Amino acid sequence: MATDIVTKEELNEQNLFIQRVRAVTHVFDHKPLAYTHSYGCQQNVSDSEKLDGMLAEMGFDFTDSLENADLVLYNTCAVRENAENRVFGNVGALKHLKEKNPDMIIAVCGCMVQQEHIAERMKQRFPYVDLIFGTHVLHKFPEMLYGIYEKGKRIMCIPDCDGVVAEGLPVRRSDKYKASVPIMYGCNNFCTFCIVPKVRGRERSRRPEEIIAEVRELINSGFREILLLGQNVNSYGKGTDTDFPALLRELDKLEGEFIISFMTSHPKDCSHDLIDTIAGSHHISHHLHLPVQSGSDRILKLMNRHYDSAKYLSLVDYAKEKIPDIQLTTDIIVGFPGETYEDFRMTVELMKQVKFDSAFTFIYSRREGTKAAEMEDPVSDEEKGKWFRELLDVQGELGERAYEKYVGQTLRVLCEGRGRTDEKLLTGKSRQNIIVDFAGGDELLGRFTEVKITKALPWALVGEIIR
Ligand code: SAH
Ligand code: SF4
Ligand code: F3S
Q: Which of 22, 182, 323, 431 would bridge 59 by S-S if both were Cys, CB 3.0 to 4.6 A apart?
């Protein structure tokens, strides 16, 4: 597998641009302020942490106020139409700010503008956007930004390629105890509804030694939850002599107190080896996010998912048998082109059979350039809306009781911050990746503690520390 790795020389060149931007912003009468926002998935959040890292090295501080910003950067998502509409709305709203402050730099990057027709539309509709760049040139952000400061011209950079891996970029982490670590980029699955393979390029895995070194360093510097990221972590390492369970086993051997979680796991590549690895581990989260998308085999086939409901259910059974306290969550799409009410009911039945702890449910959104966009889609939005609400009700009922089994049990909880149910409480995460709130002092932050569960809510647990 040939992976296009950004060379040290190329990264050194970017370091020079970092210094040059610093020299430009140094003569401002104040320290330049950046407002950055990431839409979409954890992968995008992780990219934004790198963009923020580069901005920090270029001399920027960060602000939550658009009015005060010298630079606004939106990292966009293309997965559904409403995600895109939100970005168009928010970029449109910057017009008056740019009029008030013509020196403000406005940049839009990420999955949405990796689509050429959207980038063109963005460029035409919003002449005040200075910089538009795609997902494959993140590491060249300093060079592009310097180009704008130096030449004062708009820049649009959206190379159409299979994608790169850039190691060693600076990172400004948004959480204190939780760190995201991408283990792979891109996707080769081409689910017919999904735009991700088009905007993120081909699947490429980072080398295991790079990942292990990064995770070790994070644990040593106080991070306690490591979230491994990939569109389909189960195909990590394909074409090499390693795979995802092997990577997990290596990470599980590291010294220290920590939890390793991961997303997303595609059912077609989810192996018994993975489940056995989780079951036998010290540190791996007992949470499996396993997007099923549909319970109808006919629709799964049209979606190009490469599994059927029987395979999915047998995987779930195996996971529940080997890891009895596993938390199972999923993604579901309602109203895929050609889906009938009977197909939809099969999804409901599967949902009842599995009893997911929670489910992320979406109404199908047509994405230009995908196979499903060419399929007949006769069901009205109104009808799909009805099915969607029916599904929410079913999951709502299941979710209501999902956590009741924990009442009376003692869970080991990583304490992360102030309470989500009550500011006076602390909040943390159990090994099953469930939110647990409990009373305690700030000295517990970043530490693991035993909590006896006294109450179950649909989305969290409440408990008391065991002394
Ligand atoms: N790589 C992950 C999913 C990434 S996208 C996986 O394969 O599981 C996250 C979720 O968005 C998907 O699981 C799917 O449920 C939903 N999604 C993706 N494209 C969509 C579309 N066109 N319309 C509606 N939902 C979509
Ligand atoms: Fe999209 Fe499918 Fe790839 Fe997930 S696995 S990112 S749903 S194409
Ligand atoms: Fe993620 Fe959205 Fe891109 S879900 S990979 S940010 S299209």
A: 22
